[in-house]
Amino acid sequence: MLSGSMLLHMFQIHFVLLISRQGKVRLTKWYSPYTQKERNKVVRELSGLILTRGPKLCNFVEWRGFKVVYKRYASLYFCMCINQDDNELEILEIIHHFVEILDRYFGSVCELDLIFNFHKAYYILDELLIAGELQESSKKTVARLIAAQDSLVEAAKEQASSISNMIAQATK
């Protein structure tokens, strides 16, 4: 007999898209194989489909035998593509979880944060999802891992700066 926790349904996210209201792609992460040509076509199709939907319509659409779950936060649409039989509400929760972590990190995240710090957004997403599956559900754990990564980056910058200073002093 399986316990309740062992009956968790695993889902497969095929890709993540963040699209602005103007149709500009702000982040993409592909967990299933798509050629660059197919990726461009997917982005065009989904941008056209999602951006034209009314705000009162539900947050998921059937598309090419899959379901695309999306949620608009400010000027950005967060979209995830899943299998037809996967639970849309789980994915809406994951989207919201991602946004909450971005908010916590950037202090009320906005589109410009993602444009100028896209590497941070990718790092946060990679802490959250691996191979299209939820890796970490704890916001505190993700925040701690991101803070540790930031500390490593700062230490590396300081070390590079001190090495540059030593080289500059030695070559005077």
From TrEMBL:
Subunit structure, interactors included: Adaptor protein complex 1 (AP-1) is a heterotetramer composed of two large adaptins (gamma-type subunit and beta-type subunit), a medium adaptin (mu-type subunit) and a small adaptin (sigma-type subunit).
Biological process terms in GO annotation: cytosolic transport; intracellular protein transport
Homology family: Belongs to the adaptor complexes small subunit family.
Purpose of the protein: Subunit of clathrin-associated adaptor protein complex 1 that plays a role in protein sorting at the trans-Golgi network and early endosomes (TGN/EE). The AP complexes mediate the recruitment of clathrin to membranes and the recognition of sorting signals within the cytosolic tails of transmembrane cargo molecules.
Domain of life: Eukaryota
Organism: Camellia sinensis var. sinensis (China tea)
Principal place of residence: membrane
A single GO cellular-component term on record: cytosol
Entry keyword Endoplasmic reticulum: no
Annotated PROSITE patterns: CLAT_ADAPTOR_S
Membrane-topology descriptor: Peripheral membrane protein
A GO MF label: clathrin adaptor activity
Keywords linked to the UniProt accession: Cytoplasmic vesicle, Golgi apparatus, Membrane, Protein transport, Signal, Transport
Pfam family for this entry, one: Clat_adaptor_s
Positions of the AP complex mu/sigma subunit domain: 12-151
Protein name stated in the entry: AP complex subunit sigma
Subcellular location: Cytoplasmic vesicle, Clathrin-coated vesicle membrane; Golgi apparatus
Higher taxonomy: Eukaryota, Viridiplantae, Streptophyta, Embryophyta, Tracheophyta
Region forming the signal peptide: 1-18
